[in-house]
């Protein structure tokens, strides 16, 4: 990046008008930003220029970026729980902002349970600029851009999800390569934690990480959250598949110091992620390190997912 790109003033910001959401007007504010942007500057943009309400909670949602099927009970618990928690606490929601995987499920949750008041939608997609289909259509300063999130099934790129309210489009110069946004997203989360939920209170904005399904990369993400000082609470939706189910299984098995057979679990990791034994052993080590902080990891069971979600967010806000 240092050799082949140079920084310049952003040339893409304004409002996206999503064209495939006939049931309601869906527009989102957006800006293209450098991967090394200062998080404090981004936060000021969101609060002052975009005039977003100061959050009282940040729900950062991680999981599968490819399309996957959620069982109906899990989908209902996740969708209703997430939006109920967000509306009742005045939370912001962070996702990757794309129209596939867990970000698409968040968009569907906003559509079903989010209400029609655009001013109360604070669902922010933090998305790699180089991964967006037709991103050149978004170039222009202070523009109003119609956007058709159809996508090319043969393309490595993806579309933005039309039920997000804001987008930070993170550019590191690459095209068709995912992941560059994660570092900036984490820095921005830490910056938001420094905000006070009320000028008269000394309490910062709590952050909760939500995991639904997820690839092998999610394991390192969770470890970063739970080993942080102070740790960020993480809860996984059991029954959603892949990484979330591995976390849930290990969390149950280690509740009473129960032994987890190495060979069996290594085989399970290999099957879930499609990796060789060496990589499975590395992931097992990371999973065990996460369980060293197991008080910060919780399972959201399908039957009690909604109730647990409300309780967890309320306790985070000391309500």
Automatic annotation (TrEMBL):
Coiled coil: none annotated. InterPro entries: TRPM, TRPM_SLOG. One of its GO terms (molecular function) is monoatomic cation channel activity. This is Transient receptor potential cation channel, subfamily M, member 6. GO terms for cellular component: apical plasma membrane. One of its GO terms (biological process) is metal ion transport. Residues 28-290 form the TRPM SLOG domain. It holds the Pfam family LSDAT_euk.
